[in-house]
C-alpha cells in the first residue's frame, strides 16, 4: 500500500521503503522514561479518557465513503498486510522478552487491522490477510521482510526494539505519502488515526531503547 507501506523490501543492508512501487507491496525491566499521567506506564503509549490513543479505541468507520483509484485500492490491501506484519512481529517478541511494550502495541495493531478490514469490505478490496496464520503472508516480499525482521529481533530485546523502531518509522513516512492523495473521508480518517498511532508507538519504542 502506499499508505502504511511498511511495505518494504529487502535490500543489501536492511529494509528499504518502496512506497512508489504500490504494485509490488513488500515491506517492514520497569517502565520506560516519559511515563506519567495520560501515558500508559508500561508501554509509553498516550491514553485519553481511559482509552489508548494508539488505535485500540477504533471500533468502526463512521465517516462517509468516497472513491479510490486502483493504486489506492492496492495501497489499502498492502496496509492490511503491514498491520498484520507489525502485529505478528510484536506478538512473537512479546513471547520472548519482558518488555511489555510489545504486547501492548500488538493489541493496538489488531484494532488497526480491524479498521483497515472494515475499509476493504466497504470498498470491495480483497483481504490478503484472510486465513493467514501468524507469521504467514500472501505477498512473497512481505513474507521475506517478516522473516528478516524476525531474525533480527530474535538476537535480543534491544534488537527487537530496534525492529519496532524501524517498522514504525517506515510506517509514518508511508502513511504521510498515502494521505497526500487520499480524498475519501473514511480513508482519510483511518489513515490519520494510524499515523498518530504509529507516532505514539515510535515514541514508546524509543523510550524503551533509551532506558
UniProtKB/TrEMBL annotation:
SUPFAM superfamilies: Ferritin-like. Keywords: Signal. Gene3D superfamilies: 1.20.1260.10. Residues 80-206 form the DUF2202 domain. Residues 1-28 form the signal peptide. InterPro entries: DUF2202 (IPR019243), Ferritin-like (IPR012347), Ferritin-like_SF (IPR009078). This is DUF2202 domain-containing protein.
Amino acid at each position: 500500500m502506499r499508505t502504511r507501506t511498511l511495505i518494504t523490501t529487502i535490500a543489501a543492508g536492511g529494509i528499504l521503503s518502496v512506497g512508489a512501487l504500490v504494485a509490488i507491496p513488500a515491506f517492514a525491566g520497569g517502565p520506560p522514561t516519559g511515563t506519567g499521567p495520560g501515558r500508559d506506564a508500561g508501554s509509553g503509549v498516550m491514553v485519553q479518557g481511559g482509552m489508548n490513543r494508539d488505535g485500540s479505541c477504533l471500533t468502526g468507520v463512521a465517516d462517509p465513503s468516497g472513491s479510490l483509484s486502483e493504486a489506492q485500492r492496492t495501497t489499502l490491501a498492502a496496509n492490511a498486510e503491514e498491520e498484520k506484519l507489525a502485529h505478528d512481529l510484536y506478538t512473537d517478541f512479546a513471547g520472548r522478552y519482558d518488555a511489555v511494550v510489545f504486547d501492548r502495541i500488538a493489541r493496538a495493531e489488531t484494532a488497526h487491522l480491524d479498521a483497515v478490514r472494515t475499509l476493504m469490505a466497504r470498498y470491495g478490496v480483497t483481504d490478503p490477510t484472510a486465513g493467514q496464520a501468524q507469521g504467514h503472508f500472501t505477498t512473497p516480499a512481505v513474507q521475506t521482510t517478516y522473516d528478516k525482521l524476525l531474525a533480527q529481533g530474535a538476537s535480543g530485546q534491544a534488537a527487537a526494539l530496534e525492529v519496532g523502531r524501524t517498522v514504525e518509522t517506515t510506517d509514518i513516512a508511508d502513511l504521510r505519502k498515502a494521505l497526500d492523495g487520499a480524498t475519501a473521508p473514511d480513508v482519510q480518517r483511518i489513515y490519520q488515526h494510524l499515523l498518530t498511532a504509529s507516532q505514539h508507538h515510535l515514541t514508546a519504542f524509543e523510550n524503551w531503547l533509551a532506558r
